[in-house]
Amino acid sequence: MASVTSLSDSVQQHLASALTATRPEAAGADPLLRRSDRADYQANGILALAKKAKANPRELAAEVVARITTGDLIKDVEVSGPGFLNITVADRAITENLAARYADGERLGVPLKADAGTTVVDYAQPNVAKEMHVGHLRSAVIGDALRSMLDFTGEKTIGRHHIGDWGTQFGMLIQYLFEHPGELAPADEVDGEQAMSNLNRVYKASRALFDADEEFKERARRRVVALQSGDKETLELWQQFVDESKVYFYSVFEKLDMEIRDEEIVGESAYNEGMPETARLLEEMGVAVRSEGALVVFFDDIRGKDDQPVPLIVQKADGGFGYAASDLTAIRNRVSDLHATTLLYVVDVRQSLHFKMVFETARRAGWLNDDVTAHNMGYGTVLGADGKPFKTREGETVRLEDLLDEAVQRAAEVVREKARDLTEEEIQERAAQVGIGAVKYADLSTSPSRDYKFDLDQMVSLNGDTSVYLQYAYARIQSILRKAGEVRPAAHPELELHEAERALGLHLDAFGDTVFEAAAEYAPHKLTAYLYQLASLYTSFYDKCPVLKAETPEQVANRLFLCDVTARTLHRGMALLGIRTPERL
Q1: Residue 174's domain spans which residues?
Q2: Where does the DALR anticodon binding domain lie (predicted)?
Q3: What is d(CA 474, CA 581) in angstroms, rounded to the nearest whole number?
Q4: Rounded mean pLDDT of 460-475?
Q5: What would the 3-class secondary structure string for 478-547 be?
Q6: Given 258, 289, 316, which residue is the final one in a domain?
Q7: What is the pTM of this model?
C-alpha cells in the first residue's frame, strides 16, 4: 500500500512552514485550512495569530504570502478580506496526486491510521422468536456501515449482535408451549420464514395470556427460574427457538446484503453466568447498594417525578437480573477478554438514558476509563409519510422483509424502464442491488440521531440525493470506459485542466480525509454527502468536458483517467456503506 498525502495536508504543511518562518512563535499553529468558493482553499488561522501577536492581520498575511513559494504545489495565493489567504493549487499537483492514488488500487492512497485500536460494535440486535420489523433496520444498516468505515481506516472491529434471547418472555413462551403442545409444527416440516411466523404467532398468544391470567403469569415466572437454573427440558425448547430464529435472521440479513457471522451473535444468555459476579463486584466496591431488596445504582443528576432519584436496577428484589446486569457483564467481557479500546453501541435513541446509567456505572467500577471509552450511537425513528412511526394500514409494525421486498419491486420498475440491453434475469439482479441500496442510502444519508420518512418513490428516484443517482453515475462511467475500447486511461500532468476537471479532481483527492472524519465522528451521512457531491461534480464535468471526443489523444486519456478515478472512488465509497455499484444499468 502506498499512502498519498492529500493536497489539503500538503498545502497545510506548506503554510505552516511559512507561518513559522514569519513568526517563530507560531510554530505548531494551525492555518485552519478549508475549502472555499473563491479559491481551492482558504486559510483563516492568521486572524487568531495576529490577535495573539497584536499585529495587523492583513500585514501579517502579506508577510506570510511573501514566504510562500509558488510552483509545483501552489499556483497562486492572495490576501483576501481582513487577513484570509486564498490559495489556488497547481493543475500538475492535482493530476499527479490523483495518479498516485490511481496507482495504489482499491485503497486509493488512503493511509491507515497509526493509533488504531479495537472497537466492539454492538449492532443489529433482533429478538429470538420474533419477526424482524422496520425498527430493526437502522441498527443493522448504520452499524454495518460504521464497521466498514472503521475497518478501512485501520481500526480492528469486532461485531456483537446482542440478540434478545433471555428473560421473562422466554419463560412465558416456553410455558405456553408446554401447556399447548400442538401449537408449533415440527421445525423440519416448515421453512425458516414459516417457522418464524409460527413462533411469532405463538409469542403473541402467550403474551396475551400472560397479561390476562395471573396464574399463568406465575407459572411463566417459575419457568424463567427453571431456564436460568439450566433445567434440561426447558433449555432444549429454548435452544430450538434460538436455532430457528438464527436461520430466519440470516435470511433477512442476506436480503439486506449484510454478512452476519455466527460467532458474533452473542445474546443476553451468553452473560447469564457472569451476572452474579457483576452484581457482587459492584456491591463490594460500593458502586451499587441495596434498596428495598434490590441492588441498584443511584445518580445525582438523574431524577424522575417529585425529584426522586431514578436508579439503575442491577438485580431485582426477587434475585432476577435484567438488562443492566447483562449490559454491564458484556462490558466486562468486551474490555477484559476482547481487549476493546472503544465500545460502540448502535441502539435506539430511546435507550439513551439506560446506556448513560450503564456507562457511568462501568466508569465508577473502573471498567471504563481513559483507555477504554463507550459511545452510544443513538438513532432516530423511521417514519411513515404521515410523519408518525411507520406502520401498516392496520396499525401493525411493518415487517422488515415486506419492506425490502417492496423496495426491490419498486426498483425493478425503474431499472426496467431505463434498461436497454439487460435480460429479465439481469433486471431482477440489478433491482435487488438498486432497491436494497436505496433503502440503505436513505437511512445513512440522514444524521443517525434524526428521524426520517420512509418514501420509496423518492428513494428509487434517478434525481436528487439517492443511491440510484450514484449508481447510474458509476454505470455511465463504465459505459464510457467500454466505448473507449483500446484507448486506456492515463494521467497527463502537463495538461492544463478545465475548471470542471479541477473541481472534480480536488474533490476526489478529499476522499480519504472524508472517510476518516466520518469514521471518527460516527457520521456515515458525511460520506454519503461527499459521494453525492462527487456524482454531481462528475455530471458537471461530463457535460462540460468531452471525453472520447476531446481535442487531443492526451486529453482523451487524461479525461478517461479522471472518469476511472471517479468510478473507483464511487465504488469504494458505496462499498463502505454496504451498497453495490452495478457495471450496467
Answers
A1: 168-258
A2: 470-585
A3: 7
A4: 94
A5: HHHHHHCCCCCCCCCCCCCCCHHHHHHHHHHHCHHHHHHHHHHCCCHHHHHHHHHHHHHHHHHHHHHCCC
A6: 258
A7: 0.93
Would strands 289-291 and 156-160 be described as parallel, antiparallel, or unpaired? Answer: unpaired
Contact 19, 32 (CB under 8 A): no
pLDDT, one tens digit per residue, over 12-35 is: 888 888 888 887 776 666 777 888
Amino acid identity at 177: L
- The H-or-E segment that residue 77 falls in is strand 74-80
Distance CA 261, CA 124 (A): 12
The cell numbers describing 278, all together, are 457483576
Same structural domain for residues 482 and 535?
A: yes
Query: What is the rounded CA–CA span in Å between residue 544 and residue 531?
Result: 20
The set of residues, in sequence order, having a beta carbon less than 8 Å from that of 291 and lying 6+ positions away, is 298, 311
**Looking at 239, 258, 277, which one is the last position of a domain?**
258
Distance in Å from the first CA to the final CA of the chain:
32
526: Cβ–Cβ under 8 A, 6 or more apart, which residues?
Answer: 514, 517, 518
| H or E element at residue 157 | strand 156-160
- Report how far apart, in Å, the C-alpha atoms of 2 and of each of 54, 105, 111, 536, 572 are: 43, 9, 8, 28, 17
pLDDT tens digits, residue range 393-437? 667 788 899 999 999 999 999 999 887 788 899 999 999 999 999
CA-nearest of 576, 562, 432 to 491 is 562
Number of domains present in the structure of the chain: 4
Minimal CA–CA distance to 512: which of 147, 6, 2? 6
| CA-to-CA separations, 374 to 145, 161, 169, 355, in angstroms, rounded | 18, 16, 29, 9
Predicted confidence band of residue 191 (pLDDT cuts 50, 70, 90): low
The continuous run of DSSP H or E covering 15 comes out as helix 7-22
Inter-residue contact 34 to 41 (CB < 8 Å) = yes
- Within a domain: 399: no
| Amino acid at the residue 501 | E
